[in-house]
Amino acid sequence: MKIIHPETVIDMAKNTSISHCGAEKRLKRPASDVLLFSVCLFGLILYLFPVAGSSAEVPLNISADKLEHSSERDIYSASGSVKLIYGDAVLIADDIEFNNTTTDATASGSVIYEDAEVIINAERIDMNLNLKLGTMYNSDIFYKQRNYHIRNIDKLQKLGEMTYYIDKAEVTSCDAIPPEWRFRAEDININVDENIKARNATFFIKNLPVLYSPYFVAPLNKKRQTGFLTPSPGYSSTKGITVKQGFFWAINDNMDATFYGDYFSEKGFGKGVDFRYIKDSKTNGELWIYHLNDDYLKRDFSEVKSYHNQELPYDMSGYLKLHLVNEFDYYDALSSTSSGRFGLDAWKTDPTGLTLEERLQKYLESNLQISKSFTQGRTYFLGQYRQSLEGSSGAVPQSLPELGFIINTTGRGIASANMSLTGTNFWTKNEQRGQRIDVYPNFYLSAGRIVNFTQKIGLRETFYILDRPDDTSSREIFDLRSIISTRFLKKYPLFVHIIEPTVEYVHIPSVDHSDIPVFDSIDSMPNTSDIVYSLTNRLSGAFLGNSEGRLRLSQGYSLLDIEKPYTPVLIESNLISDSLQFSIN
Asked: Which residues does 280 contact at the CB level (< 8 Å), separation at least 6?
């Protein structure tokens, strides 16, 4: 193409092109991770309207059926199959007007904008290609990185340096039309430093509205803010329709509280509070309290869950854990009421040490432990209370207290050893009381790299001093364990696959237990002669966020049980990643 004089109009043949260099502002990618609706819109805002950047020369290329240039104003007007390329951005439309000085572009008619981050389909776009500032009309946006679709946007505009307005929009991660699910909201106001506010927020499954909120608010900045959490609706076969609502109180930088109000159509209203605090990595804790007056059963249910870590003088540490309910059938009636609420990270292990399936537990444990570690082991003081979930706790032996001394595994060559020494005072309300001293050294031999053979033998001496009845006794026993295993490993571009076949033999001789009490599993060691064979598959890699998957199949064969020697096949499966923990047994 050839430019003659200012104000000269040049008619171009189809697909004639012109190149130029302009300036670029670097784009800041979204860093917020709030609710899906706010994440999508906030990510879009940060993408289209960055608040900081740096300049660099960016190539410009325009092709069209017809292209006109005003040299005085340095404006290009293109029509008919227009394609404008500015850096990594491509703008396609029926008509485009581009100001080469300001890099302002107005595109209309079947507009498509695409770069490495988004694809935008719109009726019209007014945008500064350098700053990524502008307004879109009747647009749909696909955010590639997270596979988010933001559809049916009538108008999106920037109102201030950090404030934006969207008249209405829909959000989904489904590619299908209509999508399997979507959020819809109106009158959306966004302040990048504060929050997102919207009216008439509705959640759809296909075309069926299942959740509605006349007013929606979600924080966008990294700093915690006091406010209502998003309601959580659901349905339970025992509790009916459920709606859970929380209010978060950011007390200060190292302390917060969340108040919960739950509605169950078949139970009534539940109230809960979760208080968290942290002084440093060694001193922190949490307290959870929940109460529900069951309208159907006419009973009160209460739960307390708490833990506290405390750094102590002389390199000692303390740990307090409480887990109590007022009714032994609490979890049968209500299931878990703290799931996803209690714990510094809801997707990580519950700090109380219990899984989410609390109704399957036999006991709840509360304990106080003070310990001191040293190079090859540790010593501890433990006071423990166990509450039965099967009835009265009067017959449950309580460790009040227990003193322990642990020597960690130490070895030389193929041989190694460890030992535990514990002294426990057992107390029960209704039955036996007494003291137990347990000495348990273990010796190991392990050899072989391709095929590994491990031999373990444990020698156990246990002494009993009983108050009810007044008596003393002892027991000597050993356990033998032999393991043969190997490993097959295959590396792929995105993950590593490991297969581990194992054969294990376990032997515990027959010992007379008739003259000793049974306080816990240490006292009950039945005669065993079992072969256990297993196959473990492991997948690990960064393809699912530093994930690790494990599938283990195992079965036992008893040499003592002639009628039913085979045990049921046990299947264990789990998947753990940066943001997910899932297991099946």
From this structure: 311
In one-letter notation, the amino acid at residue 539 is L
Q: How far apart are CA 395 and CA 406, in angstroms?
A: 29
- The CATH fold assigned to 1-223 is lipopolysaccharide transport protein A fold (2.60.450)
Residues 227 and 246 sit within 8 Å (Cβ to Cβ): no
On whether the pTM is more than 0.90, the answer is: no
Question: 231 pairs with which residues across the strands?
Answer: none
Sequence ranges of the domains in the chain: 1-223, 226-361
Which ranges of 49-115 would DSSP assign to H, the alpha helix?
A: none
CA dist 395 and 392 (Å) reads 7
Q: What is the pLDDT of residues 64-113, one digit of tens each?
A: 899 888 888 889 899 999 999 888 888 999 999 998 888 889 999 999 98
The residues near 518 (Cβ < 8 Å, ≥ 6 apart) are 524
CB atoms within 10 A of CB 443: 15
Task: Tell me how far CA of residue 222 lies from CA of 30, 192, 218, 545, 579, in angstroms.
Answer: 12, 10, 12, 22, 18
Of 242, 364, 234, 394, whose CA–CA distance to 303 is shortest?
364
Rounded-to-integer distance, Cα 244 and Cα 264, Å: 9
